[in-house]
Structures are given as C-alpha cells and as structure tokens.
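pipeline: protein-struct stage 2 | run 1193 | Merozoite surface protein-1
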Amino acid sequence: GVDPKRVCVDTRNIPEHAGCFRYDDGREEWRCLLGFKKENNTCVEDNSPNCNTNNGGCDTTADCQNAERNEENSQKIICTCKEPTPNAYYDGVFC
C-alpha cells in the first residue's frame, strides 16, 4: 500500500496508467507507471522500455534493471529503490 501522506489530494489531472505522489512539502507529481511512457499529458503503452531511456521509468534515485519476460519475450523493467528512500511506490516509479 501507499503511505496515506503520499497520496495526492488533487487527482483531477492524473491520466490513466499513472501514479501520483505527494512530497513532504505538499508538491504533487504524477508519473507514468512501468510499461507506459509520457506523451503530452497522457501515458501510452511503451513496448520497449529500456533503462537507458528515462531510467526505464524508474525514479531517478532508483536502480533500473532490464529483465527478460518470457511469456511475451519482451523487456520488463525492475526498479530498486535505495537508501535514504528505500520504499518503492508504484513499483519504484517513485522512491
């Protein structure tokens, strides 16, 4: 689950397939979930996510790994959040 104080208050402009994060200072930011990429103000499917592009969609402080996905033989991204913010939100899109 997401820490309640990290849940965004203003959810009007969050597109589908995005996660929103509230910072300690009250700022709110949405980012596309893993497997999606930002296009204008929407999140569209990303068929070839890669750690070399935008850290794979992971938080800038997270480690990004390209993992093979056997079912569809397509790339999947694994984000690993590190200290001092080891808690992953939305699979590591935010740390």
